[in-house]
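User: Some background: our group keeps a shared notebook of sequences we're curious about, and every so often someone picks one and asks for a predicted structure to add to the entry. Today it's my turn. The entry only has the sequence so far, pasted here. Could you supply the structure so I can complete it?
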Amino acid sequence: PGFPWRCAPAVQASHALFLIDVRKPEMVAGLRAEGEFIMTNIVIRTGRIARDPETRETRSGTSVTGITVVTDRPARDKDGKTYKDENGYTAKDSEFHRVTCFNGLAKTVGQYCSKGQLVSVQGRLHYTQWDDQDGVKRYGCEILADKVDFLSRGNPQSGESGGESDNRDAPEID
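Assistant: Of course. Here's the predicted structure to add to the notebook entry:
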């Protein structure tokens, strides 16, 4: 209900990811012109915030907040099988995703999100290229967020709790 296309769960129901069934042209009428393919740049990540959000404002007054979202997946050995860590839990590989929010979303994420909070981010991939101080060409990738859903409560802001937040677990991302 509410969607003109049929959605089906992908891989595991717990991931809350849906694939659009575009095999029936009448289901996606209006989304593409006759004979054209649908091109999308959609990213959905569900994970925990690695460090407290960093909010700033541009010279023109636009609010920008950056967060790093960590996603985990089972680690695999050379034979492609999962294995247990020293504590008896399934070993995991973690990936860190840089996410940038703008305007009202930036203010909301900066105010209400904190390290360790579970979030679902929807947005698009954005690639950048620049030359560093030494003239070395650098490349970066980030998710420009359109929507951030809070799936757990955040921790109180460091000023409210009286303590400093600990961001040592999260690696620096270029």
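Suggested note for the entry: The CA atoms of residues 44 and 100 lie 14 Å apart. The beta strands are 7-9, 18-20, 43-49, 54-57, 63-74, 92-102, 118-131, 137-150.
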